[in-house]
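Submission checklist for the structure archive. All mandatory fields must be present; incomplete records are returned to the submitter.

[x] Identifier: Dihydroneopterin triphosphate pyrophosphatase
[x] Organism: Vespertiliibacter pulmonis
[x] Residue count: 147
[x] Sequence attached
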Amino acid sequence: MSYKNNQSVLVIIYAKSTQRVLMLQRVDDPEFWQSVTGTIEKGERPFETALREVKEETGIDVFAQNLSLYDCKKSVEFEIFAQFRYKYAPNIRYATEHWFLLPLEQEIIPVLSEHLAFQWLNVEQAVRLTKSPNNALAIQQYLAETN
């Protein structure tokens, strides 16, 4: 069996025109809303993973659209939610997440391939909606001052 790497990325996508954050509804847990996330694959650097995951999960091609993806140069360790631990090797309980920001000029309709739905929410609503403490912290830390 092939297990997931416990190194991942979190990419917060927000619209500068509205200061709202893009939130995505997970397929494997519809009560779980989050920003773009993804596992770092073998041979990838976190920045490359962030680019790939944004394209896979939203259809946004950062390079083709001449956008700027910002590395927050911050990573956090967290305990993996119990309902997702089966994806990792039996002795893995913690993961490390590397944070990125992707500002867009305006809100877009993402092309969803891995999620059920999306919402553009203000910072407070996004923080309340996500079940991920890391996601909430990153949104608060990097976007609260812009509202």
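[x] Structure attached
Curator remark: The two ends are 46 Å apart (CA to CA). The CA atoms of residues 55 and 64 lie 10 Å apart.
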